[in-house]
Amino acid sequence: MPDAVSSSNDAKPPAPALVKNDKDKVAVDIFESESTYVGGTTFREKQFRGPGQRSYGSFDESQFSFEYDHRFPLFGKVYLKLGAEYERFDFGTTNAPLPSSLQSLTGTIALEYIVQGEVGAFFTSSPGIYYSDINSIGLGNVDAPTAAGAVVPLGKSFYLLLGLRYSALSHYPFYPVLGAIWLISKKLRIEARPPTPRLIYSYSKQLDFYVGAELLGSAYKRDANAAARPQDRRFNNGVIDFSETRVGAGLTYSPTEQIDIEFDGGYSVSRDFEYYRGDSKAFRAHPAPYARIAISANF
């Protein structure tokens, strides 16, 4: 059965992933860290296209996240998982009414049903603050994206992930959590699940190669930027819904059964910034190359 391991706090629900460790062992301490750089590109308002579209300059992006979780046995195969995560996106300066950073500082509260070392069902929430400036935090920055679901086996080599996610700040508060895993052979598998759908080839016990995507995003309450241009001040204290889709290829190196190191690169094919409350406006960045490194440890 594939494992539904917790992902980052920004609206990404637990997702199934094959584990390499002892099937009878439950990982108690979980560390995850990720860092990405996306190259510079131009962007535009989503509703305007062609030669007459307004230019807002160009910008690049850097992303960093760190998470720690600890599992506590409750009864039978049910565990309580508690933890914390910090994630930050930084963007270059532009002429658009966009914040220079988007950040989240959250906790993790989850109930997990674990069978043979793998999560078969989950209920998880990431309460915390979603903001652009630490000096402008209030009740409007508080959210608790929550997801629940289960991994359903359909035979010995095919599994479905079915669930639902809710976020009060997001433009679309409810949306389904859907995924699938197909174990094609001992070397090849498809993990079509959020937030990292992949086709994976296991070269050895220590080395995997993959092609796939990464889906990121959440909703944030931006700061009251007194330096904003007068025509853009209506977006101060607004809620901005950010989403990004990356596609690429990479590898996972596992020096031990407990540690995974990932390197990948490709293109950020879409990045959307949407103000959807009050005066709505949306921006989309053009594709740009990216490079990413991630480290996870489970003990």
General description of the model:
The chain has one domain (3-298). Helix content is 0%, strand content 63%. It has a 17-stranded antiparallel β-sheet that branches. The chain contains no helices and 19 strands. The chain has 299 residues and is an all-beta fold. The model is unreliable at 1-21 (pLDDT under 50). It starts with a strand and ends with a strand.
Please name the defining characteristics of this protein.
299 residues, mainly beta, disordered N terminus, 63% strand, 17-stranded antiparallel beta sheet, 0% helix, globular
What is the number of E strands? 19
Biggest sheet layout: 17 strands, antiparallel
Shape: globular
- Unreliable spans are 1-21
Strand content: over 45%
Rg (CA only): 20 Å
Mean pLDDT: 87
Helix content: under 10%
Q: What is the total number of structural domains?
A: 1
Cα distance spanning the termini? 20 Å
Give the helix/strand class.
Answer: mainly beta
Number of helices: 0
H/E element sequence:
EEEEEEEEEEEEEEEEEEE
Topology:
Blueprint (H helix, E strand, L loop, with lengths): L2 E3 L9 E3 L11 E17 L12 E18 L2 E14 L9 E15 L2 E8 L2 E4 L10 E2 L2 E8 L4 E9 L7 E10 L4 E5 L5 E5 L4 E15 L17 E18 L2 E17 L5 E5 L2 E11 L1
Antiparallel strand pairs: 1-2, 3-4, 3-18, 3-19, 4-5, 5-6, 6-7, 6-8, 7-10, 8-9, 10-11, 11-12, 12-13, 13-14, 14-15, 15-16, 16-17, 17-18, 17-19
Question: Can you give me a brief rundown of this structure?
Answer:
The chain has strands at residues 3-5, 15-17, 29-45, 58-75, 78-91, 101-115, 118-125, 128-131, 142-143, 146-153, 158-166, 174-183, 188-192, 198-202, 207-221, 239-256, 259-275, 281-285, 288-298. The chain has 299 residues and is mainly beta.
